[in-house]
Amino acid sequence: MKTVIIGTNHAGIAAANTLLDNYPDQEIVMIDRNSNLSYLGCGTALWVGRQIDGYEGLFYTNEEQFRAKGAEIFMETEVDKIDFDNKTVKAKSKDGEEFDVTYDKLIIASGSKPIIPNIPGKDLDGIHFLKLFQEGQAVDKDMSRDDVKTVAVIGAGYIGVEIAEAARRRGKNVLLFDAEDTSLASYYDEDFTKLMDKNLADNGIELHFSEPATAYEGDANGRVNKVITGKGTYDVDMVINSIGFTANADLGKDSLDTFRNGAYIVDRTQKTSNDDVYAVGDCATIYSNAIQDTTYIALASNAVRSGIVAGHNVGGTKLESPGVQGSNGIDIFGLGMVSTGISVKAAGKNNIEVLYTEYEDLQKPSFIKDDNKLVKIRIVYEKDSRRIVGAQLASREDISANIHMFSLAIQEKLTIDQLQLLDIFFLPHFNQPYNYITMAALKAK
């Protein structure tokens, strides 16, 4: 059985490892247009902000490891076309050599691509995007210039907020723009996003919400020096665009069924509308247990899981994905926020009628004076069924592991009432006897 995998980042790597480690009859061919694989892009801001020593640790495998397992791997190789009728991938190497690779099964792991706003000045020098390792290198190099004093970040989602923090840690003046009226609007409700907004402002980041960029202007040398919005014109020395990603699914768009954003529609085994073709990671749809429907959630954790599922199914073991909750988290200037499922705002967009309950308290009893921080929690549940559909937590204490429990609760369709008397241990070193999770659940209407 010959399986070709197009794309060798998280999803493609997970699929390849699953096949190579479990199915010795598999002949694996891996193709990627990049010169590197396995880059943890979520760590770019840590490197650029000098919170870690360098970028080397952001790669967790390499092509030699796959060759040692028996895979044939082609890096810096572009796939020009897929002939789905004849099951052939047409590729071109970096030297311009064109060649064909046939397959029995195909796994497309082509990932996502940045959304590029089509506004005047978008091609000026000094305007950056952040996804690939090389783009991280370009941002880091540009930020090291002595004449770069002010950095504009366009987009206040996770990547935008993280790179804004990184630029501030590098001593830059930072202007953060977004069309929404808060940061992190896709993940949290306003009571939580306002906490992050205050945190950003308290650390010297200038916030420009409800203010999307409408144009860029440049100097005589063609380098960006102004960001223009509907509210004003701002002098800048560098721009980082981080307004989001969309599926990189051009290869099969004319042959495979696609979602509203262009992503390949897949079933719970990651199979596309073609029985011999699977799609994994950011180029494919995913099933959300929160909204109980197919959707699009581009996360590295989802990519890995989808790659594992596809690998086993291609290898001959029937395996269905249990679905996802879109669990995520962020830590900015010491404020940690985590969420899973959907917020109240997102529920409204999906026409799901919900209620919510929330609570705020110290992590530990008040007699613990050192290292004892406030925790804010919100649990979102469906009004009629009372099943839990989302949770959000914020604290300067590390409360991140709590979100895994809520993720499982959503997957297993637990109700808010089942959470009320959950057996949660107590020890003053860790928590309170009236735990904020219990208290929030007990407050539910």
Automatic annotation (TrEMBL):
Pfam families: Pyr_redox_2, Pyr_redox_dim. Residues 2-307 form the FAD/NAD(P)-binding domain. Signal peptide: none annotated. Keywords: FAD, Flavoprotein, NAD, Oxidation, Oxidoreductase, Redox-active center. Its EC number is 1.6.3.4. Its cofactor is FAD. Residues 338-431 form the Pyridine nucleotide-disulphide oxidoreductase dimerisation domain. Transmembrane segments: none annotated. GO terms for molecular function: oxidoreductase activity. Belongs to the class-III pyridine nucleotide-disulfide oxidoreductase family. This is NADH oxidase.
